[in-house]
Specification:
Helices cover 63% and strands 0% of the residues. With 243 residues, the protein is mainly alpha-helical. The protein binds protoporphyrin IX containing FE (HEM). Protoporphyrin IX containing FE is lined by residues 61, 64-65, 68-69, 90, 94, 97-98, 101, 133, 136-137, 140-141, 143-144, 147, 157, 161, 165, 185, 188-189, 192-193, 195.
Amino acid sequence: MGAGEIFWDIVPYVTLAIVVVGTWWRYRYDKFGWTTRSSQLYENRLLRIASPMFHFGILVVIVGHVIGLIIPQSWTDALGLSQHAYHLQAITLGTIAGVSTLVGIALLIYRRRTNGPVFTATTTNDKIMYVVLVAAIVAGLATTLIGSGVVGEEHNYRQTVSPWFRSIWILQPRGDLMMQAPLSFQVHALIAMALFALWPFTRLVHAFSAPIGYLFRPYVVYRSREAATADQLVGSQPRRRGW
Ligand code: HEM
């Protein structure tokens, strides 16, 4: 058994342990800091475009990963979906979602860096996390390009990366499979694990408790103080003199 194989057998469990213990620790000691650290009050114009762009993009990327990593190739084969057809839809959807995620996060980071109060409200851990997050997305897009044969040789990751991913969860790690994947896939998975390890110590914890309604609600609900008719005059409207 080579060092590389042992690495891919063990590191996923180290990552999982950090995520579980780290999340428990964060909740125990920083319950009231369990937040996105919203900066909407400081800046809203860019946020309104960039945040949905990033979040919808990453949701599609996640769905893509669930399909690509969890569903065995034998199942899609049995459904009559050819490898070519699978690949084509994965590349098309994956690239659109991946690029949207990347542009979204680029705008969010630009906003965070150029808006004084937003930058001041950014913790060191979050700054490190942003670098790793962008690296994970860029490396992911690179694997799509490389794996699809656009650059270099085509690689069917559903026979290497995907069974490796599943082997972790059934406690029969197959690091040897990961060693058969091209370097770009190994780099992508490694950066992803670094991101998971950082997760509990950053604002990413909000993903564990994000209400789905968040995605569809207006950012801040503004109500006009102008009432159309006299009988709608309520609350903070100036009081009219009585008789
Ligand atoms: C251990 C965890 C992960 C594994 C094994 C993994 C594996 C893969 C594989 C095999 C692809 C190629 C998909 C294709 O070409 O059809 C890919 C693409 C991609 N990955 Fe990951 N990934 C992981 C985690 C992540 C994370 C945490 C992120 C982002 C934060 C991410 C972002 C992307 C992106 C943006 C792409 C480009 C294609 C797309 O948009 O789906 N991945 N990943």
